[in-house]
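Dear support,

I submitted the protein below through the web form. The confirmation email said the job was done, but the results page showed an empty box. After a refresh the structure appeared. I'm attaching both so you can tell me whether what I see now is the final result or a partial one.
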Amino acid sequence: MRYENINAGTVNTFTGLFEQYAEILAGLKFQISRMKSDVLEQSSELQDLVNYCRQEMTVQEVGHCRDELGSIQKRITEEERKRQEELNRKEEERKKREVWLIANNDGTVTDPRTGLMWADRDNGHDINWHDAKKYCESYRGGGNKGWRIPTEDELMGLYQSGNGYNANGYTVYTTDLIHLSGFAVWASKNDGSSAAGVYFVPGLQVRFRIAAPGFGLALPVRTDKYSFSDN
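What the results page shows now:
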C-alpha cells in the first residue's frame, strides 16, 4: 500500500471516525450488557414465578389427594362398619334360631318345640331312598331306639334361610348343630315311583320329588319319648 498521499488531515479525519465508531460500539455494548442483565433478571423472576406456581400446584394436588384419601378412608370405614353390623345381626339371628335346639353331646340334638330328637349328622354320603329308610330305622344315636326317616314338614322345620355353612362345596341352610354332608335329604313319603325330600339350598324348590331310586342323604329323627333305658 502506498502512503505518500496520506497527510495529517487525512489522519485526523480517520481518527475522528474511529472515535465515533468506538463510541457507537461502546454504546451498543452497554445496551447489550443492560439488555442481557434485564433478561437475566426477568428470567430469575420468571423462574421464581414458575417455582411458586409449581409449589402452589403441588400443595393443591397434595390437598386434593388428601381429601380424596380421606373420603375413600371414610367410605371404607363406613362400609366396614355396615359389614360388621350385618355380621353381628346375622350372628344374633343365628343364636336366636338355635336357642330352641339343645345339643345333647351324644350324637343327637333335641328340639323342645316339636318334641323331636335329631341325629346331629346325616349318614355321610348319598344313598337311595330305601337304604336311607333302613339306615334311619337302624340308627341308635344317643343309645336310643325309635329312629325313623323324617317327614317333609319335619325337615322343613330345620331349614333356615340365610343361615348357612359349607357342606362339600354347597352352602346348606340349617342349624350348625346338625351337620349335613350334602344338600338333599330324604323324607318319608314314597309312592313307589317317586320319593320326597328337602333341598337345604336356596334357589331351588325346597321340597322335591325324585324318581326312584334316586340319591340323597339319610337324617334320622325320633319323637323324644324314649329314654336311655329303652335299649
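Response: this is the final, complete result; the empty box was a page-load delay. Helices lie at 8-98, 129-138, 152-156.
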